[in-house]
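Researcher: Here's the sequence for the chain we discussed earlier.
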Amino acid sequence: MEDTTTRYYTENAPAFFTDTVLVAMDSLYTRFLPHIPPGGHILDAGCGSGRDSLAFLERGYRVTAFDASPSLAALAERHSGQPVKVLRLQDLEWSQTFDGIWACASLLHVPAAELPDVMGRLARALRTGGVLYASFKYGRGERECQGRRFTDLDQAGLQALLSQVTDLRELETWISEDLRPGRAAERWLNTLLAA
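Model: Thanks. This is the structure I predict for it:
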């Protein structure tokens, strides 16, 4: 059954695509991609517009992408020029498949109680030594905003989560401003985790 967040993205897919597809993400790519071998395989987990999938493809990486919203998956497929699966993070079943996982602004929609299981699934999907990038809106607790649910994390929240996921170790965590125009006041918790 479709949850309210997936329904939001399905109903607002064209506007969300337009708002995010041109955002320059190079400052995040420069932290993540040095951990991925040339030509390595990246999972774009919750790919949204397909912006990052296309950027990784253009840099010579192999990319598998998915999104929970069928409407967004269709737009991302058109934008990236490759298939995009319709899949929820909670249903991942890959094992030792990816050199890197890019979970940019996607894990934040997973209920807090489900995050340890989802993080474990992501860890299993990584090859040994693979790296996961994840980002959350900076804060604490769960909330709903404009029809979407969010799990916000700060450093303490991330540490509490990682204490339940023994297959991932923290490489680097930092706080950044939102990269979208007019949103610089919003802060994000970013983390790189290794399997």
